[in-house]
Amino acid sequence: MSYTELEHGYQGLRSASRPIFYVGDLSSVQSTLVGPVASSIYRSSKRAELSDGCSNDDGCMGGSDLEGEGKQVLVGICAMAKKSQSKPMKEILTRLEEFEYIKIVVFPEEVILKESVEDWPVVDCLISFHSKGFPLDKAINYANLKNPFIINNLPMQYDIQDRRRVYAILESEGIEIPRYAVLDRDSSDPKHHELVESEDHVEVNGVTFNKPFVEKPVSAEDHNIYIYYPTSAGGGSQRLFRKIGSRSSVYSPESRVRKTGSYIYEDFMPTDGTDVKVYTVGPDYAHAEARKSPALDGKVERDSEGKEIRYPVILSNAEKLISRKVCLAFKQTVCGFDLLRANGQSFVCDVNGFSFVKNSNKYYDDCAKILGNMILRELAPTLHIPWSVPFQLDDPPIVPTTFGKMMELRCVVAVIRHGDRTPKQKMKVEVRHPKFFEIFAKYDGYKHGHIKLKRPKQLQEILDTARSLLAEIQHRAAGPELEEKQGKLEQLKSVLEM
């Protein structure tokens, strides 16, 4: 059973308890609904009234407070429709709406692109992130104007779009990155775009990179990354690009680097054929998955549903610290980045900013829970909302199996001590006969208060004494006190004769 199939097990467990969102005229459909379904939709539609600047056709969730419902935190989603209406976003927003004091307002794309920021919906908290076509400058102006609680810092998203700034920030935070140099053809300083190319290496601004090496455009929006191979490996280059169908890269016989544009050149890191994708939700949570590296053969592995196959990954303590540093350095609560595991170390090679795990209900649950508590912890006191962090156990780990849905054993914790030991061979005997005291005095027992006899000659003296006393008992020459110790003396004799 694949990891993707296991994750589907969470879906059926939650569907009964999730709220149903309905946007539009309830009266037109209410007559066709009866029983608990109608009342459920009615309650959800009341909580999801549209706020100013949000139309029914845009599919917004959330809005102004209703009379009698009390104060609630309005959480705005400001992003392009392709992102805000995506399956991962909807999964997380559905779970966020389960918080009693949270309402969701999705900004329509038409409003974002055409309306001035003064006319955008007013919210208490803003989740906004850049993607192709998104007016980041308008979002920054809105944040400055309305001053909502920001989940992902907006100005830092300009830095994430420039690989030069990304690497500079990672370096300043002491995060391991591949050795690199920047060929900046946009700079007026000729020292910033010096390139000397040879058959099996290039020299960038005085820094030499032997093949194989990686050539990345400085713009993070450009995914045309080339890997150049040495002649000993056949030469040529592997050209990576955004996934198209079942391909993510192709081989080219071209071995010469690009002559136009600005690029970052870095050492090729020999991984085990996988990339590790890490997704943070705050500095203390990171979800990691591994996928087949696009540099391997360029073919994308997909499951029966057409989704790229990914494998769960357990991060090391060092990698968890890296996740925390990346989240804090770029001020992005929800942040994705790429790790390369090579030569016993982990290197960050890319920071993607706001991104979600594509197909993990466990992640959706965790993400919504963390974001909801973070938002209410920050805003509930200022809005005088009677909220406190709830104590709750984690959801039971139930997964689908061939025998139906069952609880999954996540781990076993045990304290184990081996029992393969030789039992102690110990014998205690009380002696009062003068012969034993003579041996005690002979080895300075009165001086030290004790004696320890280990040498064969010393043990032989004890054995001879035991034999002598047993002989006296047999010849009736011993006193009654000694006869009482006969059993112990015989045991002592047997042990020493072994």
Automatic annotation (TrEMBL):
Q: Which SUPFAM superfamilies match?
A: Glutathione synthetase ATP-binding domain-like, Phosphoglycerate mutase-like
**GO cellular component term, pick one:** cytosol
Query: Could you give a single Gene Ontology term from the biological process aspect?
Result: inositol metabolic process
Q: Where in the cell is it found?
A: Cytoplasm, Cytosol
Q: Name one GO molecular function term.
A: inositol hexakisphosphate 1-kinase activity
What are the record keywords, sorted?
ATP-binding, Cytoplasm, Kinase, Nucleotide-binding, Transferase
What is this enzyme's catalytic activity, as reactions? 5-diphospho-1D-myo-inositol 1,2,3,4,6-pentakisphosphate + ATP + H(+) = 1,5-bis(diphospho)-1D-myo-inositol 2,3,4,6-tetrakisphosphate + ADP; 1D-myo-inositol hexakisphosphate + ATP = 1-diphospho-1D-myo-inositol 2,3,4,5,6-pentakisphosphate + ADP
User: What are the VIP1 N-terminal domain coordinates in residue numbering?
Assistant: 73-162
Q: Give the principal location in a single coarse category.
A: cytoplasm
Q: Which domain of life is it from?
A: Eukaryota
Family assignment? Answer: Belongs to the histidine acid phosphatase family. VIP1 subfamily.
Q: What does this protein do?
A: Bifunctional inositol kinase that acts in concert with the IP6K kinases to synthesize the diphosphate group-containing inositol pyrophosphates diphosphoinositol pentakisphosphate, PP-InsP5, and bis-diphosphoinositol tetrakisphosphate, (PP)2-InsP4. PP-InsP5 and (PP)2-InsP4, also respectively called InsP7 and InsP8, may regulate a variety of cellular processes, including apoptosis, vesicle trafficking, cytoskeletal dynamics, and exocytosis. Phosphorylates inositol hexakisphosphate (InsP6) at position 1 to produce PP-InsP5 which is in turn phosphorylated by IP6Ks to produce (PP)2-InsP4.
**What name does the UniProt record give this protein?**
Inositol hexakisphosphate and diphosphoinositol-pentakisphosphate kinase
Q: Provide the species name.
A: Melipona quadrifasciata
Q: What is the lineage of its organism?
A: Eukaryota, Metazoa, Ecdysozoa, Arthropoda, Hexapoda
